[in-house]
Design goal:
- The chain is an alpha/beta fold.
- Helices cover about 30% and strands about 25% of the residues.
- It is built from eight helices and eleven strands.
- The strands form three sheets. The protein has a seven-stranded mixed sheet with strand order 3-2-1-4-5-11-10, sandwiched between helices.
């Protein structure tokens, strides 16, 4: 995955053009200023897992948080460091895996945050054990994903969305595709919503909030206009956000 994201980084950043003025939850979801899931961040210690180009880390820092961004990709981190310098904010970026957090102190973090990263991890159990360890009591884990229902409409052979479900919701086999126009092969893991809830519960977390936000109408209109054959895809929940707490 490190090699894949090193190769895909430039295309990813050019394609998404992510802002540093607000914390985002993925391309299909409204930002933090709309959802209001984080509250006052001044003085909060935040670790972002899978920080990519660092845009959320920078937005956290602008709100007064003390932030470290971790990512597996050298190219993504290089982009993040350059961007943080340009934005004149203090963020530490480190290379590493979300399943190996031994360098982070027990009970020292207020928030562990991750956007569209956990589905790429081969050992989600290990990641959650580590997240629980490093969070303080009362600390929060917030992460977003492609909604598991949306996975049912992904056609592996065509590598695009279909207008009817082509994949069994209960199939836990990894999904594989080519990233955009890069030729880079990616894979991600599918869990049902119930399986995600069980993973959190079995690793000590208490679910605080489950969010299935409406996607921005302008995005839906651009991708799947009402007169398009793909208009039924507008009826799917594209993103799911879990807000869990360490009791």
């Amino acid at each position: 995955m490190r090699d894949a994201w090193n190769r895909a980084s430039a295309s990813y950043q050019a394609r998404h053009q992510l802002t540093t003025t607000d914390i985002h939850y993925g391309p299909w979801a409204p930002p933090e200023r709309t959802l209001g899931l984080l509250g006052d961040l001044r003085g909060q210690r935040v670790l972002e897992l899978g920080c990519g180009g660092g845009q959320c880390c920078i937005a956290f820092a602008k709100r007064g948080a003390l932030v470290i961004g971790l990512d597996i990709s050298d190219e993504q981190l290089a982009f993040a460091r350059t961007l943080a310098t340009q934005e004149a904010v203090a963020v530490e970026f480190v290379r590493g895996s979300a399943t190996q957090l031994a360098d982070f102190q027990d009970g020292a973090w207020d928030i562990v945050f991750s956007i569209y990263t956990f589905s790429y991890l081969d050992d989600m159990q290990r990641c959650l054990v580590e997240c629980y360890r490093i969070l303080r009591p009362g600390g929060r884990l917030l992460f977003s994903l492609d909604h598991p229902l949306r996975d049912c409409f992904f056609d592996d052979e065509e590598e695009e969305l279909a207008v009817y479900p082509v994949r069994n919701y209960f199939d836990n086999q990894p999904m594989q595709w080519t990233f955009a126009d890069t030729g880079v092969r990616m894979h991600s893991h599918h869990y049902t919503v119930a399986q995600w809830l069980d993973l959190l519960r079995l690793n000590g977390f208490r679910l605080h909030q489950l969010v299935e936000p409406l996607p921005p109408t302008a995005l839906l209109d651009a991708l799947w206009p009402l007169d398009s054959p793909y208009a039924p895809l507008r009826n799917l929940p594209p993103t799911i956000i879990f807000v869990a707490e360490k009791p």
